[in-house]
Amino acid sequence: MAEPESTVLNTDVKQKDPSEALVIAVTTRAIFNLEEEHALFLAKGKDEYVRHQQANQNKPLPPGTAFAFIQAVQHVNKQLLASNPTERDLFDVIVLSNNSPESSTRIINSAKHYGLEISKFCFVSDEDSTQYLKSHQVKLFLSADRTDVCNALRRGVSAALVFQQDIQTPSTQLRVVFDGDAVLFSDETDQVFREKGLEGAVQYERAMEAVPMGEGPLKAFAMHLGKMRKKFGQEKSPIRTYLVTARSGRDMGIRAIKTLREWGLAIDEAFFMDGAPKGPILTQIQPHIFFDDGLHNIQGAQEVGVPSAWVPSQC
């Protein structure tokens, strides 16, 4: 497949081998706050939007929801290279945008202003940018557009929808929180729950306790993240991962733990909330990103200032 119509290599950043790196693609509205510009685009069209971006090309865009996550990813890379200067299993961040090349200068300048280590900027104009995810070997795609996220998931790429929000600045340690069903795991138990209720789901889990669950849409990303996590000792790791699930630990936690063990995926902390709100525990964790398939959980996370990303189970 051909490259996007405009791909700019960031010569300030060492280019990485995508076959070994954990490639994360972000859209401009995921990494920067472009809500005013997007409103202008919707109200007055592409030409006015392009004129605005060109007129403000030297004015940095404010940080968006995924901004702190990308900064933390850079911190992990620095730690990896400090331990092993020849390390190739690094994060590689690219911008994959539906912006036209004419409006791209402000985006590139903003990334350089903040010192973001983005290796490539790909501007696809009005095309479906997700068609280029596989050619860039992307392992995680973050977008503020639901259609893009659904297209990516259909292409077999881990993807999530970010909502613009005011966030607190977490620590430099990369902290990632995953929900269980329909995120890390398949939605098989959710389907049983919808058909037979909670008691039916509990009985199903007990009967299937020895059988690992199917993989969910973010398993591939979590597995690569876990592989990078193992490069560090437990005490000083720049990566920390969490499972925060609505499952109850007593009735439905054993299968989840056995599945993670079967996959070889080590999670630093697991919280089985038994249907309780996730906001309070997320406040304590202060993650750089929280992945969940439930919009009510995403809204709860937003209310406490936690950067959150929705993994839609229905597209």
What would you note in describing this structure?
With 315 residues, the chain is α/β, with parallel strands linked by helices. Helix content is 38%, strand content 17%. The protein is built from 11 helices and 11 strands. The protein has an 11-stranded mixed β-sheet with strand order 1-4-3-2-5-6-11-10-7-8-9. Helix 2 packs antiparallel against helix 3 (46-55). The chain is globular.
Helix fraction by DSSP (H/I, runs of at least 4):
25-40%
Count of beta strands: 11
Query: Strands of the biggest beta sheet: in what spatial order?
Result: 1-4-3-2-5-6-11-10-7-8-9
Derived from helix and strand composition plus strand pairing, the structural class reads: alpha/beta
DSSP strand content: 15-25%
Largest sheet: 11 strands, mixed
Tally of separate helices: 11
Uncertain spans: none
Cα radius of gyration in angstroms? 20 Å
Run of helices and strands: EEHHHHEHEEHEEHHEHEHEHE
* Global morphology: globular
Summarize the structure.
The chain is an alpha/beta fold.
